[in-house]
Design a protein that fits this description.
The chain is of the alpha/beta class. The chain has one domain: Rossmann fold. About 35% of the residues lie in helices and about 25% in strands. The protein has 10 helices and 7 strands. Strands 3-2-1-4-5-7-6 form a 7-stranded mixed beta sheet, sandwiched between helices. Strand 2, helix 5 and strand 3 form a beta-alpha-beta unit. Helix 6 crosses helix 8 and helix 7 crosses helix 10. The longest helix has 17 residues.
Length: about 270
């Protein structure tokens, strides 16, 4: 993965906070599927960290699943957390912290579960994220997450390649590489699987507008700076047309689901 400009990532998600929930259709669907997997775990944590919580849309369903759990929401963008405060479950305390996933402001073994929906793809060094997640989880704690795989937005990537050779769509990690990184970080029993979800649009410009609305724009340190010329955008739209099927343009997302556990703490002799 190429490096990201963290300040750019933070600023774009902050700017998108107000209208994020209305535009983040895919994120809501993937979150719903991740919560279903939590139900199947048969695990009821008492301390939950929602890592990359965004506007806090997972807080209420997490509270329903774990009615006695203490909830903590972390996000890089403080503006997102302001929305999360408004969405917190009634009569439930939710702690919030603006922080990077690579440097969490918590002591070791603070949580029983870390829940993270479509955040990891914005972290260029997953080893550091996994090491921090491992650090803040208690013995036999669980890390339940989703991220995006390398086939994500393959149509948009191919259309841009017909226009220039710059990076316009991020490169995402394969699920096998993610599994290896989990093991390096001390997790055990990682389970990874993947599925493809497709959104469709009338035009390629509508797709790009949707990405802008949720803050998911190119933040690579290798990206071209400045505004994209209208003629180049028009060229991308023309190139995208070869993917049109039954009158609609597809946007493919490869969604990776992961579950991993921390080892059980053994008593000292």
């Amino acid at each position: 993965m190429t490096g990201f400009d963290r300040r750019t990532v933070r600023a774009r998600f902050a700017a998108a906070a107000r209208g994020y929930d209305a535009a983040a259709v895919l994120q809501a669907e993937v979150q719903s599927r991740l919560l279903e997997r939590l139900e199947l775990l048969g695990f009821t944590p008492s301390r939950i960290l929602d890592l990359g919580a965004g506007t806090g849309r997972a807080l209420k369903p997490l509270a329903r699943h774990c009615p006695r759990a203490r909830l903590t929401a972390v996000d890089l963008a403080a503006a997102m957390l302001e929305r999360a405060r408004r969405q917190r479950p009634r009569f439930r305390r939710v702690d919030v912290a603006a922080a990077a996933a690579e440097q969490l402001p918590f002591a070791e073994k603070t949580f029983d579960m870390v829940f993270s929906n479509l955040m990891l793809q914005w972290c260029p060094d997953p080893d550091r994220v996994f090491a921090e997640t491992r650090r803040v989880l208690s013995g036999r704690g669980v890390f339940l997450f989703t991220t995006l795989g390398p086939d994500t937005l393959r149509e948009l990537r191919a259309a841009w390649r017909e226009v220039d050779d710059r990076e316009h769509v991020h490169t995402f990690l394969d699920m096998h590489d993610i599994g290896d990184a989990l093991i390096r970080s001390g997790f055990v029993e990682p389970v990874m699987d993947v599925e493809q979800l497709t959104l469709t649009y009338d035009t390629a410009r509508e797709l790009m507008q949707d990405l802008r609305r949720i803050g998911a724009r190119n933040a690579s340190t290798e990206r071209a700076r400045g505004m994209t010329a209208p003629r180049r955008l028009a060229a991308v739209e023309r190139a995208y047309e070869r993917f049109r099927h039954e009158g609609r343009l597809p946007a493919t997302y490869e969604v990776v689901y992961g579950t991993a556990w921390t080892p059980l703490d053994l008593p000292r002799r």
